[in-house]
Amino acid sequence: MRHPDTDEIPARRRKRLVFRACHRGIREMDILLGGYAKRRIAGLGEAELDRFEALLDEPDQLLLAWLTGQMPAPDRLDLAMLDAIRRDAMLAQDK
């Protein structure tokens, strides 16, 4: 869901999304989503920011299950964004 303040400055929006991604409530989600946000947020366009923000609105337990493959993600989600987060975590782990 896009932030209701449609005049939000892009840099402020990115900073807000990084904060939300890093402060989820479950440490694993802080690492997965926060790590992705810190590494990739600057390169995301508006549409990708919208898709990332929509994922941040999902409950942590479900997101974790979808990202780790414990449960299949529903079709209503942005499966490409979930895959991008998974790939990013794997690349970061290899470093």
Layout of strands and helices, then pairs:
Blueprint: H1 10-22, H2 27-40, H3 46-56, H4 60-68, H5 79-94
How many domains is the backbone divided into? Answer: 1
Order of helices and strands: HHHHH
Number of strands: 0
In DSSP terms (H or I, runs of 4 or more residues), the helix count works out at 5
Q: Which residues sit in consecutive blocks of at least 5 with pLDDT less than 50?
A: none
CATH architecture label: Orthogonal Bundle
CATH level 4 superfamily = Flavinator of succinate dehydrogenase
The CATH class assignment is Mainly Alpha
Question: Oligomeric state of the chains?
Answer: single chain
Major beta sheet, specifics?
none
Envelope shape: globular
What is the overall pLDDT average?
Answer: 91
Strand content: under 5%
Structural class comes to mainly alpha
Keywords summarizing the entry:
DNA polymerase, domain 1, 95 residues, single chain, mainly alpha, globular, 5 helices
